[in-house]
User: What shape does this take?
Amino acid sequence: MTAAFVTLLVLAPAPSAQAHTGLTSSDPADDSTVQTTPDRIQLQFTDPMSKEFSKVSLTIGTSPQQVLVLDPSTSGPTVSVDLSDARLPTAPPGSGDVAWDVAYRVISADGHPVDGNVRFRAPLPPTPSSRDASSPASETPKGESSSTVDEDGDDFRTTAILIGVGVSLFFLLPLSVLLWAIGRDRRRQRATSE
Assistant: This one.
C-alpha cells in the first residue's frame, strides 16, 4: 500500500505555479523596426493594471537625448500612450530611424509591481515646416506631462528620497521627544536627590 502511494505521488503532476504579472506584448514590438512614426504605444500585461500607479517615459535616442514623461491610459491589462499630441523631436523627411526606449513602471490591480523597457527603432516625425503648424506651442500636449526627468530617465529617484525623508521624520521626531523626556526626568531626579 505504501509503495503504491509513493508511486502515485511521484507520478502525479505537480500543481502549476501561480504566474507572475508581466508584459506579454507591445505595439510597436520590442526589438522591432517600424517604418512610420508611431502615434500610439501599447503595452499588454497578464493582469489588469492600475491607472493611478502607471508611469511611462519615452527616451528618444537623438542628440541631445530627450526624455518625455507621458500620461498613460489603462483599460484592463492594456496600458497605452497617445503620442499624437506629444512633443516629440523632429527630423527632416528621409532622415532614417532612431532608437526609442519606452520605460514603464506599473502596478497591477492586485498590487504586483512590474517595470521594464521596450526598445524599438522608428523614424522621427517630420520637421515643423512640413507638419501642421496650427497648434499653439504654449499648450501642454494631452499625452505628455509638463515635467521632464533627468537624462538617466530616473523619475522615481525624487519620490524615493521624499519617502525616505518622511519615514525618517516619522521615526526620529517621536524618538527625539522620548529622549528629551527621559533626560528631563533624570535631571529632576538628580535635583530632588541633592
Observations:
- The longest strand covers residues 97-107.
- The CA atoms of residues 1 and 155 lie 62 Å apart.
